[in-house]
Amino acid sequence: MMDMAQAGYATDSIDLRSDTVTQPSPAMRQAMAQAKVDDDVIGRDPTMVELEQRAAELLGREAGLFMVSGSMSNAVALMVQVSRGDYFMAPRYAHILSHELGTASWLAGGIPVELGWGETPGVPKLAEIDAIAAEEDHGHAYFELVPRLLSLENTHNHAGGTIIPQALSDALMAKAHQAGWQVHLDGARLWHAAAAQSITPAEAAGAADSVTVCLSKGLGAPVGSLLCGSQELIDRARRARKMLGGGVRQGGVLAAAGLVALEQELPRIDQDRILARRLAQGLRVLGFDAPVPQTNIIMVKPGQASQLSASQLAASWNKIGVRCLTMGPAVRLVTHRDVDESMIDQALDRIEDCLKA
Hints:
This protein is 42% helix and 16% strand. By secondary structure, it is an alpha/beta fold. It folds into two domains: 101 residues, Aspartate Aminotransferase, domain 1 (Alpha-Beta Complex); 242 residues, Aspartate Aminotransferase, domain 2. Strand 11 and strand 12 form a beta hairpin. The radius of gyration is 21 Å and the shape is globular. The N and C termini lie close together (7 Å).
């Protein structure tokens, strides 16, 4: 396999591993340097307060709480809504089940139940929720598992950034509430789901009791997620965050970048989906199995273009400076604010030359 120097390429890589690899913009760095701060553990940091209020407003919620990561936000959401021994439901390969090291069970005490996918990967079936709700027999609750919470993921990372259509999302949440369950929405990339459907983030959040959104995925901030919900839920979440060591002293330094992300990066976020479709189309022309992405994540299989496995394919692409990761039987490519059309075209040129070699 040729290396980049042999192919005549510059040593700069095109990083498509994730939308978390972005560099803070100059505006973010300036805002961080000039942020007004205070101790948010013994009082409140003014810039963090501003960010939390802005996020809650965007999501149509009463209050928000800054978290250092989406995993912490999801864990706290379950800690304040699920009791030990209760079970919660989430779609197969949801981040909360597969990529958070069991914190939902370890810290929240919830027992996970995996939901199947419907016709679209990552999207649960309303009929399965109906069936679970119908099976409840409160007369035997002393020895049976009791469902307490439905957790949805929109967009679904492992399935390739797939969207829960808003009508179905609303129906799933309504059915859960009718059954007496809470609803948590892992909306790490909810910004993408809203943009792709031409709806607001508040509309995409629907009737969820708690919503997680990330600032470091797609929006380019270096750190941070937010948990939003009712004031009462956020008051309890603040205490749970402290239990996990998540209180940030002068957190306004981080929150300032998040405010810039919401102001400057959120309006352009759908450009990532456009770039992802351009990349997927180019890969299909080369013979790869690259379905049209719904958002900014492309799941690529070798198809007719190559006899290599996904891991071998990823290794060959990384070697020529198209940085990527594998996820199951596919290579995952993610577009973001730090790539543009010319870089997508350059990545395709490198991959084509790699095939020829």
